[in-house]
Specification:
Length: about 300
């Protein structure tokens, strides 16, 4: 009985490999941008699996580009330095002192840890800030605060929080061509050389669009987009997502992720995916299996 069970498991593994072969052929030579964050970036077992999966993608001829967040790490460093944290409409108020800490946490700590993990798994990763080579140009983003019905929304200045205005992909492409994996921290530079803290989801979408990536994957701490019955939707179009937003089915933290997917798709990315980073090998399961594990958003 035990031997039969082992044989069954081996056959299932062979079937998974067979299922993945057409996708390996299809995506060979293509670029896939992965926004890395949440539990997948914190839990040690998930971190190691993610790094190995990124190395596997590169080894079979796919070009992964990793864009990471780091909110918890920023919070921890600010707390250690006794710098108060304030949020407006979910956006961190970022003065010059805070942006220096943000850059230190994201570029100096988080980015290098991810690079080390990927290199330790057998890859060749290079850490980048959006400031390197003027890769991510940005400008100040004002946060819209809605008031009472009929009132004009208030536009709030939250400091050195930016929105992407231009992406120069030359550094990323040079690294891809040389066999390296780019790992990018979401920090940009303004026209006067100022540093901007930028939402990592938005950076991933902008980079995916600029690279004309085949896919963009956003790792989250949820299964994906859920319908009104709280059931996972495996595939959906942009217009269907917009209707779900209008109906209030999609709200909260899923809204910026949906906006990021729209921006990437409108810029030419073939498909965008919101997946559960708490599942081991979630990246591979979404890319190389027929059903996937999250939500795939398609252009119209």
């Amino acid at each position: 009985m035990e031997r039969a069970k082992k044989l069954e498991d081996l056959v299932r593994k062979a079937e998974i490999l067979t299922e993945s072969l057409p996708y390996m052929r299809k995506f060979r030579g293509k670029t896939i941008v992965i926004k890395y964050g949440g539990a997948a970036m914190v839990q040690e077992d998930l971190r190691k699996v993610f790094a190995s999966d990124i190395v596997l993608l590169k080894h079979i001829g796919i070009n992964p580009v990793v864009v990471h967040g780091g909110g918890p790490q920023i919070n921890e460093m600010l707390k250690r330095l006794n710098i108060p944290t304030k949020f407006v409409q979910g956006m961190r108020v970022t003065d010059e002192e805070t942006v220096n800490v943000v850059e230190m946490a994201l570029v100096g700590n988080v980015n290098k840890e991810i690079v080390s993990l990927i290199n330790g798994a057998g890859g060749r990763a290079v850490g980048l800030s959006g400031k390197d080579g003027g890769m991510i140009m940005a400008e100040k983003m004002l946060v819209e605060k809605t008031g009472s019905p009929g009132e004009r929304p208030e536009m709030i200045d939250v400091g050195l929080v930016g929105k992407v205005t231009r992406v120069d992909t030359s550094v990323i492409k040079a690294l891809e061509d040389a066999g390296f994996i780019a790992v990018i921290a979401p920090v940009g530079v303004g026209s006067n050389g100022e540093t901007y803290n930028i939402n990592a989801d938005y950076v991933a979408g902008a980079i995916a669009g600029a690279l004309q990536a085949e896919k963009m994957l956003i790792l989250t701490d949820s299964a994906g987009i859920m319908d009104k019955h709280k059931q996972l939707i495996s595939g959906v179009t942009q217009s269907e997502v917009r209707q779900m937003i209008a109906d209030g089915v999609i709200s909260g933290g899923m809204l910026p992720k949906a906006d990021t997917c729209f921006a990437a798709l409108d810029a030419g990315v073939s498909k965008a995916h919101i997946i559960d980073g708490r599942v081991k090998h979630s990246v591979l399961l979404e890319i190389f299996t027929d059903q996937g594990i999250g939500t795939e958003i398609r252009r119209e």
